[in-house]
Amino acid sequence: MRWDDRRVVITAAGRDFGRTLAIALADLGAEVFLSARELTAARRVRDEIRRGGRQRVHAFACDLTSPASIRAFASDVAEHTDRVDLLVNNGSRYLAGPDLLSAADDDVVDTIASGATGTVLTTKGFLPLLLNSPAPDVVTMVSACGTPGHHRSDAHDAFYAAKSAQAGFVEILSKRLRPQGVRVISLYPPDFDNADPLSEEWHTTSRQAGDALSAHSLVECVLFAVAQPRDCFIKAFHFEQA
Length: 242
Ligand SMILES: NC(=O)c1ccc[n+]([C@@H]2O[C@H](COP(=O)([O-])OP(=O)(O)OC[C@H]3O[C@@H](n4cnc5c(N)ncnc54)[C@H](OP(=O)(O)O)[C@@H]3O)[C@@H](O)[C@H]2O)c1
Fold this sequence. Notes:
Rossmann fold; 7 helices; binds NADP nicotinamide-adenine-dinucleotide phosphate; seven-stranded parallel sheet; alpha/beta
């Protein structure tokens, strides 16, 4: 498929997987609207992409725990484009610690707000622009922690709650948006390694059967799903843990 006529929004692209995906999609020619909680982080990634030779990239601030910030992000993007072809709900705060008592209340609130409420409101905010696309897709980075019965992560219970809420949201959204032509595609990865896509390691990291899942392979899952003809609606990616 051609990426140079696709317009992509990615949340939490100031570091790690969001940055990786922003760089990969810009590299393929997509126009990228990336956000990070801090505008400086978003601009740093935008500038990295521009230095790599891709100029169609825009940086925004978006705090996923703030409805006003999410609304401002969507309306700022709408000043640049009348449609979005792909929304990537990547942002979600991680909270470690398998002991419920170990986290402060504020951290619990923040974790659930960024992952759960943030994903719902971001999708809501961008839906009008997605519906203007002839081929709209919503990709959400959930987690194996959002799979019923999963217990193998050391993540905090609040992170499990956030990811389970995301999973419930995309499940119903997938059915409800299908008649409008929007594919809701979700990934449920276990812990994965994220080599810097601008480093040599990106190309040399082993991706054999015994290796941990890599960000490189996850990027390829996203590209594969989105590249399918519209009758092929890949709803979810689940991964066998090593
Ligand atoms: N890495 C893994 O092993 C793994 C496994 C399964 C699923 N996932 C999911 O995949 C996605 C990306 O993973 P990752 O490894 O890149 O995550 P990460 O390293 O934990 O980074 C979290 C991202 O979310 C952002 N964030 C946190 N709170 C935010 C808020 N209130 N507003 C806006 N952004 C906020 C962070 O921004 P700041 O820089 O501002 O903190 C950061 O960009 C996440 O949804 C994650 O849960 C990851």
